[in-house]
What we know:
This protein is α+β, with helices and mostly antiparallel strands. 20% of the residues lie in helices and 24% in strands. It folds into three domains: 11-191, FAS1 domain, CATH 2.30.180.10; 202-237 and 254-332, no CATH class; 466-688, Galactose-binding domain-like (Jelly Rolls, Sandwich). Helix 9 packs antiparallel against helix 10.
Amino acid sequence: MNKSLLKETRSKVLSLGIMVVFILMAFVSCKEEFDGSNFAIKSEQTVADFIDADEQYSMARDLFHKVKMGAVEGASPIYSLLTARGNYTVFLPTNAAIEKFMAEEGFATFDALLNNDEAATLVAKSCIIDNGDDNAYETADFPTTGSFDKPNLNDRLLTCSMDDNSNFLINGTSHVISENNEVSNGFVHVVDVVVAPSSMTLDKLIGEADNMKVFSYLLSQTTWADSLHENLDLTYEDPDRPLKYELNNVAPFTYAQHRYIGYTALVEPDSVYENKLGVQVKLNEKGELENGNEFLEKLSVLLSNVYGTQAADNLAHPDNAVNRFVAYHLIYGKMAYNKLIFHYNEYNYQFGQWNNPQRTNMPTNVWNYYSTMGKYRGLLKITQVGDAGFERDIEHTVYANRISVYANGPEDDYRELGVVSGFSGIRIEPSNGENDNNGLNGYYYPIDDFLLYTDAFRNELSKERMRMDLSTILPELVSNNVKGTIYTRFENGYFDNITRESADTKLLYLMPQGEWAWNNYQGDEFMVAGLYDFTLKLPRVPKDGTYEIRMGVAQNSLRGMCQIYFGDDPDRLTPAGLPYDMRQLATPDNPSIPWIDDGEDWTVNFENDKNLRNQGYMKGPQYYTVTNGKADTPVRRRGNEWACLRRIITVVDMKSDKDYYLRFKTALKKTDSQFYCDYIEYAPTSVFNGPVSEDIW
């Protein structure tokens, strides 16, 4: 628990402390005035009954009676919610836990805490998750490294990890000391420390850690700390925004009611700087770094060999080597550890149950590419090693910038055979000991070596096919807890990387559906409806060169036709080929998409692939599968109706220091036709036109 927790809460955060997310409010509002049908059967014990039955929870009970569900007049107390039907996960603090909180935050009496609206709301709402129509979380459903999917009543995601004794640790501070107390309306898990996520912004949270003093100093000196303060886009707030949107042939969507802004930082602890630079950390009586200049001097010399000597005297300049170094550690998007990588339908991965995906059988590596912050927008590759890694890794370690070599033949299983020498990756730890790494607007994770965007790494990256899910290009999906959780419609202007939307452009996200889902990469779908016209800003390539740009698509009769444009000036993009018809079937009888299923003879299969490429298409990858819960049908085998394909957009020379854009404009006057893009692929010349044919994965 951070002693300056409440002091760091800003005015806009205070308002959120008493405001439930509008989406959640719409759900909860029906519970603010209860009728008899909402109450649980009194013969069954409710959460409220469980609390009332034991005096060691009396302080929590009083807080739940005091704190209201919302800011509207007549809102019911939280206690009333806990008497009602529903599915609630409650991390219930004991009186001893609340007394510890009071001592740390300077409350002399319980009445003082009770009468402090800010603190009372923080304690009462932080420990409750309303699971809605889904089952409440029992420990079998807990993430062991990462966050829960559902937010608490303060609209914060709680993290979960295991301590050295294999006990559950909530938000890095609260041990579960009595678990799985099942009641009629959920589960109660008793904790020994109040669950109270930090109100600090990410830069301050890093500075508060006792082992991150050097990086915190660098954040300050380069002024990158000033760029990590945003949390909520107040210009997007609209109390009159509708809640639901209907689209023919698709389930109802919920409008995104808020636009949260978040960040993720990968941070070297002080020990890494000490070992690499030969300087020992010196702190003053206040715990502040005294010898930051020593580290800065040595680091500047080292980094000049990587990033050059431009603007050497101006740490705030984006060309400065130290500034570029810090920027490469920062990613847009507030990503819990288990959201850095998404497991869903990779090869041989069997999803398990919707509310409890299995976490032990991870047969192959999974990775994502992220654009880092700053002028240079470098690519950061994050990989989680699967069971088939060349070195047995039961922890399924997550690495930054690992370059793996795979068994990628047509009859192989894509297991990791090894790594490119010098690129085994930098280990990313899920937590930072007893230091809280879950901030108001982001997470940070310790890493075990210097994270550098070197020419050598860029060269290696430019040799591989880069497949980037739309959620890594649109980080707002993760920052707003949309990825994998809820069907959502977004207002125009919601995404930083989508611009120039026409008035009738309807941006939509479709979540995975459990064992049966969309046959898409990572199981989800980004869709656009209406008379759309919009521009997508692409990630930068790692190195100058010729690249083939592709998009993952799923052909079906509900799709539409669009004209695609490409270029480096978003106001003057040029057409990339003829209009693309997403409604066409991929069949042997269609000369436009001559899709033929694989047979036993791979010479014939590859010849069929060439014929398909000649028409501007490729089969979907072998790497991910039809989402039927069995993971036994790669989407490469998915043709005909609902075919999974890759559309080749263009082959073009690209510069690593330039931004490029794709524009998609409907070619039909149909308001209900669908545009769909699953992922973007960059394939360098060595991949798509090298001496060896591109692998099927």
